[in-house]
Amino acid sequence: MFNANTYTYLPSPAKINLFLHICGRYENGYHKLQSLFQILDKGDEIGFKSTPENTIILRDSIAGLAKEDNLIFKAASALLPYKQVDFGIDIDVRKTLPMGGGLGGGSSNAATTLVALNQFWQCGLTEQTLEEIALTLGADVPIFVRGKTAFAQGVGEHIFPAELETAYYLVATPKVHISTADIFNHPDLPRNTPEIEFSDYRFATTTNDCEKLVCDREPKVANLLLWLLHYAPSRMTGTGASVFAVFNDEAMAHAVLGKLPADIKGFVAKGVNQSPLQSRLALL
Question: CA-CA distance, 53 to 64, in Å (whole number)?
Fold first, then answer.
C-alpha cells in the first residue's frame, strides 16, 4: 500500500454544515449541537510513505504551529501504542482548503491520518475505536473517520449516516479569520434552539446559529452571503468564514463562481454520501 520511495496521496475531503443548531450547553461547558455534515468531493491531500526510522516526520507543517500541536501529528502519535510494524511514517500535506474556514480541513486531515495509518501500521483497530480516538482530537474528527455524510448531535459523537440527493455547492471564503472559540464563548450566541428529528430536516426551515453573530462582527462575511443569496439558497458553514450556495445544476454553480469578486476565493464541489477517502482506500 505504501512504500519508502514515493508518497501515496489520499483524499482529505472538506465538509459543510448544511445546518448548525445549538440546543444547549453541558455542565462541562461543551455545547449541545445538531448538524448535518455534507461531505464534499474536494479537499486537501495527505501523502504517506514509510521511513526506516521508527519516527513520525511531518512536512509542510503550518507556519507558527508547533509540530506537536498539529492535528496530523497528534493523530499519528495517538496510534503509536497500537502499531504492529517496525517502521515509521513520513507525511506530506497538500493544502488547498482555507485555514479556519469552517470546512473541517484540520479535522479531515487528522481523520485521514488515523484511517490510513490504521491500515499502514496494521493496528487492526475497529471503526468505533478509531472514532473514540478521533473524538479526543476534535468534535468533527469522528465524522471524517466514519466517512459518510451524516446527521450528528451531542458534541459530535452521535453520528447517523444520511443519504442526500446530489447537489453542487459553490464554497466561497472572504479574507477573514474567525476564532471558533471566540464565537462559541460569546454571550450573544443563541443556545436554546429546539432539537429536531432528522426526518423533519428541511434546509429552508433550519439555520446556522452562529451565522448572525459572525455576520454582525464581520461585514465581509455578511456581504458575501447577501451576494450569494441573489443566485441560490446560501448559508455559512461552521463558525465561518466560508459560506456556500446550493445548486442543482453544476454548470450554474461554475457560472456564479466565475462572477465572484476578485478578492474572494472559491470552488465548486459535489456533495457525496461517501467520503472519497474510503473510496480511494478500497482500491489500494
Answer: 26
pTM of this prediction exceeds 0.70: yes
* Amino acid at site 152: A
User: Residue 1's pLDDT band (boundaries 50, 70, 90)?
Assistant: low
Nearest of 2, 47, 28, 35 to residue 150 by alpha carbon: 35
43 contacts 13 by C-beta, under 8 angstroms: yes
Q: Domains of the chain: which residue ranges?
A: 8-162, 168-272
Position of cell 507556519?
Answer: 63
Prior bond of 167 cis (ω within 30°): no
- The set of cell numbers assigned to 7 is 508518497
CA-nearest of 267, 268, 86 to 167 is 268
Considering the candidates 42, 44, 83, 140, report the single residue annotated as catalytic: 140
Whether 41 is catalytic: no
3-class secondary-structure state, position 89: strand
- Concatenate the DSSP letters of all residues of 23-73 into one string: EEE-TTS-EEEEEEEEEEEEEEEEEEEEESSSSEEE-SPPTT--GGG-HHH
Read off the pLDDT of residues 50-97 as tens digits, 9 standing for 90 and up: 998 889 999 976 766 778 889 999 999 999 999 999 999 999 999 999
Cα separation of 264 and 267, whole Å? 10
Judge whether 44 counts as a catalytic residue. no
Query: Is 109's pLDDT higher than 80?
Result: yes
Catalytic residue, chosen from 15, 42, 49, 83, is 15
Backbone torsions φ then ψ of 232, nearest 5 degrees: -165, 165
The fold of 8-162 is Ribosomal Protein S5; domain 2 (3.30.230)
Specify the CATH number for 168-272; select among 3.30.565.10, 3.30.70.890, 3.40.710.10, 3.40.50.11030: 3.30.70.890
